[in-house]
C-alpha cells in the first residue's frame, strides 16, 4: 500500500521511499542515510511490520508465505479461513518456531547490514498471541527478542 505497511520484501527497503531510480538503489541510499544520521548523532529506529502481509485474506494474491507454508506462517481458523486480528485480512503466526526464526533473522539482518539501532513493531500485540489467537502470558517471540543480541 501507499505507506509500505503491506509487506512483501521483509529484508529490503521500500523502493518508493528512495530517490534512486536504479534497481536496488534504495539499498545503498538507505545505508548512506543511516550512516549520515549516525554521524549527526541520531539513532535510527526502523518501523517494521511482522503482523500481516500484502497477501490479504482468502481472496488475496499468493506472494510469499501463503505459497511457502500457509498453515505455519498465518493464523488460520478451524474452517481454514484467515484469522484477522490485524484488520488487514490476515495475521502472521508470530509465535510458531519457524516464524520466530524468520523474524529474528530479519531483525538481525537489518541491524548487521544496515546498522539500524532499534525497531518499532506495528501492531505488536499480535506478537503476543498463540496460533489460535489467544493472548499469551509469556509469548515465545517476545522472550526470544528480549534476550537477542540485536
From TrEMBL:
Record organism: uncultured Xylanimonas sp
Listed transmembrane segments: none
Domain Glycosyl hydrolase family 13 catalytic per the UniProt entry, residue ranges: 25-55
The protein's name: CAZy families CBM48|GH13 protein
Stored Gene3D superfamilies: Glycosidases
Domain of life: Bacteria
Pfam families referenced in this protein's UniProt entry, alphabetically: Alpha-amylase
One BP term from GO: carbohydrate metabolic process
Residue ranges the record marks as coiled coil: none
InterPro entries: GH, GH13_cat_dom
Amino acid at each position: 500500500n501507499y505507506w509500505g505497511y503491506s509487506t512483501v520484501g521483509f529484508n529490503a527497503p521500500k523502493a518508493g521511499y528512495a530517490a534512486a531510480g536504479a534497481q536496488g538503489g534504495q539499498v545503498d541510499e538507505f545505508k548512506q542515510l543511516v550512516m549520515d544520521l549516525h554521524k549527526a548523532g541520531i539513532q535510527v529506529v526502523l518501523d517494521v511490520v511482522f503482523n500481516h502481509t500484502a497477501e490479504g485474506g482468502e481472496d488475496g494474491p499468493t506472494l510469499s508465505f501463503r505459497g511457502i507454508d500457509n498453515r505455519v506462517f498465518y493464523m488460520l481458523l478451524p474452517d481454514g479461513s484467515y484469522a484477522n486480528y490485524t484488520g488487514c485480512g490476515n495475521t502472521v503466526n508470530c509465535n510458531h518456531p519457524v516464524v520466530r526464526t524468520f523474524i529474528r533473522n530479519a531483525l538481525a539482518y537489518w541491524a548487521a547490514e544496515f546498522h539500524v539501532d532499534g525497531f518499532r513493531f506495528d501492531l505488536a500485540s499480535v506478537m503476543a498471541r498463540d496460533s489460535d489467537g489467544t493472548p499469551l502470558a509469556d509469548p515465545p517471540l517476545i522472550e526470544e527478542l528480549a534476550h537477542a543480541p540485536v
